[in-house]
Amino acid sequence: MLKNLVNFNRLRNLNLLFLFFILILTNKTFGQVNDSVKKYYNFRNQAELFIVNKKYNLAEKSYLQAFKYIKNPFLRDKYNLALCCAYQKKKKKCYNYLQELIEYGFPIDSLQKIKVFGKVNFMKLSEIKNFKFNTEYRRKLDSLYKREQQYRGDQKENKDSIIKIDASNVRYLNQLIEKFGFPSEKNVGTYPNFNYKSFNIIVVHNFTGVKYHQNFDYSSLLTKAVERGEIDNLVAVYLILGSKGIDDINDTYTGLIAFAIYDANEPTKIKKNSMSPFGFIKLTNLDEINYKRQQMCLDSLSDLKKKILFQIDNNNFKLTASGTYKKVFVVSAEDYEKRVSSLNFEE
User: Fold this and answer.
1) Phi, then psi, of 230 in degrees rounded to 5
2) What HEC string does 182-201 produce?
């Protein structure tokens, strides 16, 4: 049973939760995605399900089929394919995919930590100096990220400075996009977890809260990027959610979630032993959710659940079951019991 298998220490750093709330609240779906991009996602989902079943040879074939359909396949998928090749002891193919990752800025030290890559010649890979992305564009994006993080330590004390920086970063980001194009992996490379880190944080923090106006709505830009195959749809949905600043403390999660109660005597801490087991929220409108996910080229809820459970013990892979892993804290025992009762603990 999942209740007996999962605990906080094993999962706190895993990105196991994907929100579907945005699928309901976003007015515009990715309705204009061309057939090639749709086929890409279909074959990728197929590949990831083969990985779940540890059929790495079939996963490799599905990835290679997917790669025929967009000009620049996403590097998350190249990474997973490298792992599939490593498990099959296809050293040359594995090396070639890892070389491409490094050429697009993926940190080599993250790869060296993965045991199945132990036979790879990392000494040779470390000599790579010629990157395939626009290093100037990336450097400028990363400088915005550093600036953005400058005052985040004490957000209450630095609130005014944070608001000003968030607003100016949006202006600078838009200028960069106008000059260099959308910050796709082809243009700016990739980061650990394949999350478009610098672009990601500016878009999400662009929504400054209910007391302040939104600086810029990136939904249309992100939607068009998905339709053109310039950004992973999983990342785009997460960013649209963040950009709109939607309240995500609700019961509409499709991933693993746990609840806990705040300690009444120490409001910043959770009550001892109150962390619930991890489970899936019980959902009744599955057909509606799956239809909306399909419109955005996302996998079905049943496929998503398989990937989430697989990654509990196989976190070397970076399947498209990621987002923001969530712990939700409540203030009353009554609310706690209600929310925990909404969880489904299953194998």
Assistant:
1) -95, -15
2) CCCHHHHCCCHHHCCHHHHH
List pLDDT tens digits, range 160-191. Answer: 787 888 888 999 999 999 999 999 999 999 98
pLDDT for 20 equals 41
Q: Which residues of the chain have pLDDT under 50?
A: 1-29, 208-210, 247-253, 323-324, 347
Alpha-carbon 217 to chain mean position: 20
Res 346: pLDDT: 59
The structure tokens listed for 314 are: 């196989």
